[in-house]
Amino acid sequence: ELKVEQNPLFLSMQEGKNYTIYCNYSTTSDRLYWYRQDPGKSLESLFVLLSNGAVKQEGRLMASLDTKARLSTLHITAAVHDLSATYFCAVDMEYGGATNKLIFGTGTLLAVQP
Amino acid sequence: EAQVTQNPRYLITVTGKKLTVTCSQNMNHEYMSWYRQDPGLGLRQIYYSMNVEVTDKGDVPEGYKVSRKEKRNFPLILESPSPNQTSLYFCASSLMARGNSPLHFGNGTRLTVT
Q: Minimal Cα–Cα distance from A87 to chain B, Å?
């Protein structure tokens, strides 16, 4: 059974600081997604990581994928309040398969304090 | 505007009263899916559809039905709702069943079953 674990589950950080959210998964997969959810809102796609060693960056967020370690990281640089949200990773469990069957992590609630 | 539209946004009902949550996308996406989001459990897939007239069970299909008679619509049907189906529901779509495209989510439907 594929398990996707994120840590930490809750992260309170000060503006200007750096931090990393980790996403571990338990079986082979070749694609991983990061989503952001603001309180009471829908999920918004941040990154699609499709291969080992993939790195994507957008503003203060950078995501990477290590398929051998079954680990993805979401790194936050010089956090600002606007980044406060819940971040989910989602792993495609159909390795080499034909369907977009995602297993989501439980999410990391990020609160950036002034 | 490209979007996934769910209705209603909020729904309170009683046990056993059949209900339907509608989902429509205007992006000509092949793939559509329903998720439920519960605290501490992340998002769990209920049903998905790879194309018109093709649907399959996700991880938590019990108590739900779906249909995909048209490409744009993917309603979620609860024939006899129970309190354990109280949850936040999201419909999502993507261009293809598998590929580089992430899921696009609707705004969610908060369902309460008393």
A: 10
Q: Which of B41, B44, B33, B43 is nearest to B76 (CA)?
A: B33
- Does the pLDDT of residue A37 top 60, yes or no? yes
Residue A31 to residue A52: CA distance in whole angstroms: 9
| Residue B12 Cα distances to A11, B61, B113, angstroms | 33, 21, 6
**Average model confidence (pLDDT) across chain B:** 94
Under a CB-based contact definition with an 8 Å cutoff, are residues B114 and B13 in contact?
yes
Confidence of residue B17 (pLDDT cuts 50, 70, 90): very high
Token representation of residue B109: 């439907």
* Angstroms from A31 CA to nearest CA on chain B: 9
A–B CB contacts, 8 A cutoff, strictly below = 63
CB contact (8 A) between residue A100 and residue B45: no
Taking only the tens place, the pLDDT of each residue in B28-50 is 999 999 999 998 888 999 999 98
